[in-house]
Request: fold
Amino acid sequence: MDYRISIAGSDVAFRCEAGETLLDAAERSGYSVPYSCRKGVCSTCEGCVVAGAGRSTVQGEVQGPAERVLLCCLRPSSDMTIAPRKVEKREPVVRKTLDMSVYRITQPAADVSVVQLRLPTGVRAKFRAGQYLQIELEDGSRRNYSMANPPHESDSIQLHVRHVQGGRFSEGVLRGLEKGQKLRVELPFGEFMLQDDSTSPAILLATGTGFAPVKSIVEDAIKRKLERPMYLYWGARREEDLYLAELARKWHTSGKLAFVPVLSQPHDSWTGRRGFVHEAVLDDFGSLAGYQVYACGNPAMTSAAHDTFAEAGLPEPDFFSDAFVHTDTRP
Reply:
């Protein structure tokens, strides 16, 4: 059995199989809706159920009309009409499952490791700048990590891994990895990417390892010689947490973008910007009408930025986010 899913206010409709989530059905049918974690935590995929019924693994039974429903966890039990934040026609997603080899692991900060993976000879990974992959662990569970390299570097993958206390991957698997060991990954996932149909100035907002997809986006834009103005605001607690600050400063001095580091708990010697990173953006820009914002990092930042920037004139369709949700701890 399958169900007809209609998008309110449009002629878009697709079929959803019994037991399939609305997000998976939309992707399979060639439609993209905003999402990030796919675990029902970050709220990026929130939408409205206008009519119909279903069951969510996070929110339980859902009966329309209902607001703030997580589409990544909702499975229909009838035909439905929904209203996602955004829907676009895309080619159906084609993902690859690959066994990648560990090539190098470095540690640019006390709690961050950079993991370089190599693909099998002759194999390339097709993805868009800003997307992420999933690492499959031995028990079948998965962990999401953004690809920090640009798409033209397609014979290898770079991951920025935050060390999470008790983390199954970051403190378990990662500690035992050696050069040549294999990791099984699936890619690509995610809708966090520079919108090519816009020439509006782009404000790139990151906290912590949210810098990883931003790095991919910036290096891809440089490769493609995009003339679109870009502004990078990278927030952290202390200066040492800006683990690749010299790279960002290099982009700044070469005129590729404007880089503004912002620290919330700096040492006394820090002479740069202080406070919350999204507030620094507001201080510099005031009105955000005419801009696009790409925010990546902890959910508290992306949520605060979304609400604050909306009040500052940023239209909803011009805010894009990828909330990093920690699901790495052992049960």
